[in-house]
Amino acid sequence: MLFQQSILCFIAGLACGAGFLVISSKSPVHSVLSLIFSFVLCSFVLLTLEIDILALIFLIVYVGAIAILFLFVVMILNVKVAEARANLFQYFPLGFFLLSLLYFDLGLLMPASFSVDVAHFIPFYLEWPKAVLSFGCLESIGFLLYTYFPFYLIGAGLLLLLAIVGAILLTLHRGVGVHRQEVSFQNRRDWVEVLHMVQ
């Protein structure tokens, strides 16, 4: 138990360090990479706490979609580092105020001690069928989706497919003066008409 707590504290410390690198890095690309690293470490923390579905949501939604989009946008826009660095110091008072407010709120909400009476939580009997046949968080969601709500799952997949195809069709512009390779047209051409004798 002490080994698991030490691993959890180590990963949480690395996540806090990556979060500090997000706001202190000079390059926006390094900031986004630190953000991706902090999301991955937070998903490891959730996996250590046996919260599987939130860990997968962190990896799929935040790392797979939002953070990669941020990385591509930052790389395309070519943000000037000097301008971003000059405007950084004016947010220090606001950040210090929000941090002190968060610390004060946590001090009010957290109890003084975490000691509980264990005797109230000991069950009088153990239901063996529930202990054997119990599902985890991820297994329960998968069981419900694929057993009782398959049409909603298929509908969500079709909506995502429609969004992908629509985005591809909207961005596919065929210019008039742009020369593109037409393979079928090239295969249909007669080689006699193409080749010319030059004297």
Automatic annotation (TrEMBL):
Localization: Mitochondrion membrane
EC class (word): translocase
EC number per UniProt: 7.1.1.2
Keywords: Electron transport, Membrane, Mitochondrion, NAD, Respiratory chain, Translocase, Transmembrane, Transmembrane helix, Transport, Ubiquinone
Lipid bilayer topology: Multi-pass membrane protein
Pfam family, one: Oxidored_q3
A single Gene Ontology CC term: mitochondrial membrane
Catalytic reaction(s) noted: a ubiquinone + NADH + 5 H(+)(in) = a ubiquinol + NAD(+) + 4 H(+)(out)
Secreted recorded as keyword: no
GO molecular function, one term: NADH dehydrogenase (ubiquinone) activity
Keyword Mitochondrion: yes
InterPro entries in the cross-refs: NADH_UbQ/plastoQ_OxRdtase_su6 (IPR001457), Nuo/plastoQ_OxRdtase_6_NuoJ (IPR042106)
Main localization category: mitochondrion
Ranges annotated as spanning the membrane: 7-23, 29-49, 56-79, 91-116, 152-172
Gene3D superfamilies in the record: NADH-ubiquinone/plastoquinone oxidoreductase chain 6, subunit NuoJ
Role according to the record: Core subunit of the mitochondrial membrane respiratory chain NADH dehydrogenase (Complex I) which catalyzes electron transfer from NADH through the respiratory chain, using ubiquinone as an electron acceptor. Essential for the catalytic activity and assembly of complex I.
PANTHER family: NADH-UBIQUINONE OXIDOREDUCTASE CHAIN 6
Family: Belongs to the complex I subunit 6 family.
Protein name stated in the entry: NADH-ubiquinone oxidoreductase chain 6
Organism name: Pycnococcus provasolii
Name of the gene this protein is made from: nad6
